[in-house]
């Protein structure tokens, strides 16, 4: 009979819905059921074979499962916010005494006899076993957990099980056909069954980790149902691991663990190689079926030690049942009796299977809880690393920016000698290059993360690449009075790879060695061939690498500490990028160090190319701090150039550089003005930014390419942009640009590009 209870506002007028919601949330957090912890309450409540509920300190329902709601005769939603006395007045008098005892003592009450009419007005008398546990938030008791077993319902289910002949199909062949096998044990009394089930529900509910749940189960079953109990769970590789053990004698647990290690279920073989004759929990894990073993003392040792283990334990009979979660096998429970103890029968099997179902749910809940905690810790660590990374990037960007802005202000406001002025300009340029390198490193890391970092391979003369990189670090090495020694074995085989990227690797390793080596130290670079491999070694006499940091030196954003205790400048990306580049070439990069103050050695091994040897072209990447003045002079006299950029500063810089080379420059701040200038001036070369408001550079080039040649439709065009990814270059060329040049660009390089497109140089 379904009853409709009054709304919360009409019962206990002093209780407000908002207040109850807040208190129930606090209880949910104390229970560990908040969403961020991932407790599967719905799953546990749906599968629990006993009635479960949580009450607050005023005996109001916070949560209730379907089985208990059915016992009370009204659906779960009509319980929430109502008191137990309102929902189940027939059972309340028998339960009130135990609930008050739990609230006063803080101790659980287990297997209490509760009788009364339920549902109210039905005339049906219920006989239940009830357990009550305190729910705490720290030391404060904020509610009660209840577990009820309807004795009448259990008797009905038990009778149905007894009528099912198929229950005996899972017995082992020995127990089914052995005429000397003992008769099924006398049926366990209903109070004993109900007591054990009630205690199981209470004991297995609380643990929040797998080991605690398994240990609670083992302690529950010994000596109630067995003289010893072993719980095995499958690990990530599918092999069983002992999680919990219990024994009736004092040192029996240690003996169980020792024998389990001596006689592993699968030995050194895989699970698929397990022999069909294997017995005990190994057989149950293999087949997923329960098993009863008898006459163990008379058995042989055909299964490679499993029977020997049981014989050593003096086991007379053993019962094993599988642990499953949603039909997925996760482990097995092994129960054993010793000596002349009676054997196991059908009642024991049914009870063990019922307990295994409860245990599997509890273990799965604990696993989910642990996984949720692990994911939360990982997310928190990721958030912390992100904050540290942003702080580090901010520091590394601000450091050169401070020098650039500071010296620019000095140059504008102070009269300086030519030498000091040149020195100031060198500092500004060096710090600007430092910022550009930082941005390139960040882009490389992004390309690595997305799998889009690619190399262009050709037969490379590695000595030429190494010498170019070493020359780039000689100046900072000389400033610290460091000796750089380069030893190259003659007649090295060519390496198949990307000359620019390989130079980047060598420069990273060499510049790191210079950075971490104190004044007066030494950096050694050697290049030798061993068979089909070329080995590059960069060693220094610097501060070395701590043993705990050595395994992590190639991780992103990892740094060693400088002599002062704070990190050396840089994001710690160079080594991570270098290892990835070496691996793209089919090689390896490893780090070695004897510890702090002992220096460090980085070894690169690359495969020798089988292609015919040829000298590589000049190295692509310019790792030196050369200035525009060092570039060969190229004149653009008479060349008409249209520059398009929405940044006035960029327009001024590009115009000044090109005009200095003799070009006739026209500037446009957007695509619309640029199209007008093209129609009027017919420029020889177009230089356009990509990211502009309104029509961007792609729209400009598309419209330009639709014009006939006499109106400028074939004007050579350069995409000069901060979008420097490989896909950006590809798109620029597909849209119609002739070249893609990333910002910032050296003025000398810009002049050379314009000269090539205008035909001034071939």
N-to-C CA distance:
97 Å
CATH top level assignment of the largest domain: Alpha Beta
Widest sheet: strand ordering: 2-1-5-4-3
Report the C-alpha radius of gyration, rounded: 39 Å
Secondary structure tally: strands: 22
Coarse morphology: elongated
Helix share bin: 40-55%
Topology (SSEs and partners):
Elements: H1 17-31, H2 41-47, E1 51-56, E2 61-64, H3 66-72, H4 84-87, H5 92-105, E3 109-117, E4 125-137, E5 140-150, H6 151-163, H7 173-177, H8 190-205, H9 210-221, E6 228-234, E7 240-247, H10 252-262, H11 281-287, E8 291-293, H12 306-312, E9 315-325, E10 328-338, H13 346-413, H14 418-450, E11 458-460, H15 462-479, E12 483-488, E13 495-497, H16 499-515, E14 522-530, E15 533-540, H17 574-584, E16 588-592, E17 600-607, E18 640-644, H18 648-660, E19 664-668, H19 671-681, E20 685-688, H20 697-705, E21 717-721, H21 726-735, E22 739-742, H22 747-758
Parallel strand pairs: 12-14, 18-19, 18-20, 20-21, 21-22
Antiparallel strand pairs: 1-2, 1-5, 3-4, 4-5, 6-7, 6-10, 8-9, 9-10, 11-13, 14-15, 15-17, 16-17
Helix pairs in contact: 8-9, 8-13, 9-13, 13-14, 14-17, 15-16, 16-17, 19-20
Short summary of the structure?
By secondary structure, the protein is α+β, with helices and mostly antiparallel strands.
Give structural attributes.
Beta-Lactamase; alpha+beta; 19% strand; 42% helix; five-stranded antiparallel β-sheet; 22 strands; single chain; 762 residues
Q: What does this 3D model show about the protein?
A:
It is a single chain. By secondary structure, the protein is α+β, with helices and mostly antiparallel strands. The chain has 5 domains: 14-156, Beta-Lactamase, CATH 3.30.450; 205-266 and 278-371, Beta-Lactamase, CATH 3.30.450.40; 417-453; 458-607, Histidine kinase-like ATPase, C-terminal domain (Heat Shock Protein 90), CATH 3.30.565.10; 640-758, Response regulator (Rossmann fold). It is 42% helix and 19% strand. The chain has 22 helices and 22 strands. The protein has a 5-stranded antiparallel beta sheet, with helices on both faces. Helix 14 packs across helix 17 (574-584). The longest helix is centred in the middle third of the chain and has 68 residues, at 346-413. The radius of gyration is 39 Å and the shape is elongated. The protein starts with 16 loop residues before the first helix and ends with a helix. 35% of the residues are buried. Keywords: Kinase, Phosphoprotein, Transferase. Residues 392-610 form the Histidine kinase domain. It catalyses: ATP + protein L-histidine = ADP + protein N-phospho-L-histidine. Residues 640-758 form the Response regulatory domain. One of its GO terms (molecular function) is phosphorelay sensor kinase activity.
């Amino acid at each position: 009979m379904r009853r409709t209870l009054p709304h919360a506002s009409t019962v206990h007028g002093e209780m407000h819905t908002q207040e109850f919601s807040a208190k129930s949330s606090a209880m949910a957090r104390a229970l560990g059921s908040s969403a961020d912890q991932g407790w599967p309450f719905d799953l546990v409540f749906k599968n629990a074979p006993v009635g479960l509920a949580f009450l607050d300190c005023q005996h109001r329902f916070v949560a209730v499962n379907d089985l208990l709601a059915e016992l009370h005769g009204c659906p779960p939603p009509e319980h929430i916010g109502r008191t137990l006395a309102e929902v189940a007045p027939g059972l309340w008098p028998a339960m009130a005494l135990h609930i008050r005892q739990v609230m006063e003592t803080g101790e659980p009450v287990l297997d209490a006899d509760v009788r009364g009419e339920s549902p109210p007005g039905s005339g049906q008398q219920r006989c239940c076993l009830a357990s009550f546990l305190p729910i705490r938030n720290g030391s404060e008791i904020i509610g009660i957990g209840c577990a009820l077993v309807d004795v009448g319902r259990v008797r009905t289910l038990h009778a149905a099980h007894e009528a099912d002949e198929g229950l005996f199909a899972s017995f082992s062949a020995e127990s089914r056909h052995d005429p000397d096998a003992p008769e099924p044990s006398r049926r366990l009394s209903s109070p004993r069954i109900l007591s054990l089930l009630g205690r199981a529900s209470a004991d297995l509910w609380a643990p929040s980790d797998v080991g605690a749940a398994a240990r609670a189960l083992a302690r529950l079953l010994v000596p109630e149902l067995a003289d010893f109990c072993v719980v095995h769970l499958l690990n990530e590789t599918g092999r069983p691991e002992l999680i919990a053990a219990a024994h009736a004698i004092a040192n029996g647990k240690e003996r169980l663990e020792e024998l389990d290690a001596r006689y592993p279920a699968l030995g050194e073989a895989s699970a698929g190689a397990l022999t069909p004759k294997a017995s005990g929990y190994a057989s149950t894990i293999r087949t997923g079926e329960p098993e009863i073993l008898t006459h163990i003392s008379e058995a042989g040792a055909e299964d490679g030690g499993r029977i020997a283990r049981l014989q050593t334990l003096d086991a007379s009979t053993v019962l094993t049942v599988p642990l499953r979660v949603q039909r997925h096998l996760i482990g097995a429970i092994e129960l054993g009796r010793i000596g002349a103890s009676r054997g196991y029968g059908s009642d024991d099997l049914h009870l063990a299977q019922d307990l295994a179902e409860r245990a599997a749910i509890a273990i799965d809940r604990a696993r989910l809880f642990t996984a949720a905690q692990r994911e939360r810790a990982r997310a928190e660590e990721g958030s912390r690393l992100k904050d540290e990374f942003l702080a580090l990037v901010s520091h590394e960007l601000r450091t050169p920016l401070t020098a650039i802005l500071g010296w620019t202000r000095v140059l504008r406001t102070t009269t300086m000698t030519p030498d000091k002025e040149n020195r100031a300009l060198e500092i500004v340029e060096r710090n600007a290059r430092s910022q550009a390198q930082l941005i390139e490193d960040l882009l490389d890391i992004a390309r690595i993360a997305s799998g889009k970092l690619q190399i262009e391979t050709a037969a490379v003369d590695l000595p030429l690449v190494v010498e170019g990189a070493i020359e780039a670090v000689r100046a900072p090495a000389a400033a610290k009075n460091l000796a750089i020694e380069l030893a190259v074995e003659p007649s090295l085989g060519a390496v198949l790879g990307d000359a620019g990227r390989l130079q980047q690797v060598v420069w990273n390793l060499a510049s790191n060695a210079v950075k971490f080596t104190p004044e007066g130290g030494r950096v050694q670079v050697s290049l030798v061939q061993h068979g089909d491999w070329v080995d590059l070694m960069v060693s220094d006499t610097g501060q070395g690498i701590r043993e705990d940091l050595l395994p992590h030196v190639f991780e992103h954003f990892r740094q060693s500490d400088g002599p002062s205790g704070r990190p050396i400048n840089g994001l710690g990306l160079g080594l991570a990028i270098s290892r990835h580049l070496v691996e793209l070439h089919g090689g390896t990069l490893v780090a070695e160090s004897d510890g702090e103050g002992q220096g460090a050695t980085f070894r690169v091994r690359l495969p020798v190319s089988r292609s015919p040897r040829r000298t590589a072209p000049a190295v692509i990447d310019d790792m030196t701090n050369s200035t525009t003045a060092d570039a060969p002079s190229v004149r653009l006299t008479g060349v008409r150039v249209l520059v398009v950029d929405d940044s006035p500063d960029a327009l001024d810089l590009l115009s000044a550089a090109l005009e200095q080379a003799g070009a006739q420059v026209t500037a446009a701040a957007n695509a619309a003005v640029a199209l007008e200038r093209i129609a009027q001036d017919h420029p020889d070369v177009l230089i356009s930014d990509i990211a502009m408001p309104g029509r961007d550079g792609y729209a400009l080039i598309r419209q330009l390419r639709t014009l006939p040649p006499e109106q400028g439709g074939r004007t050579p065009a350069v995409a000069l942009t901060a979008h420097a990814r490989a896909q950006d270059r590809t798109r620029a060329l597909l849209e119609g640009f002739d070249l893609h040049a990333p910002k910032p660009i050296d003025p000398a390089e810009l002049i050379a590009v314009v000269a090539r497109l205008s035909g001034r140089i071939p």
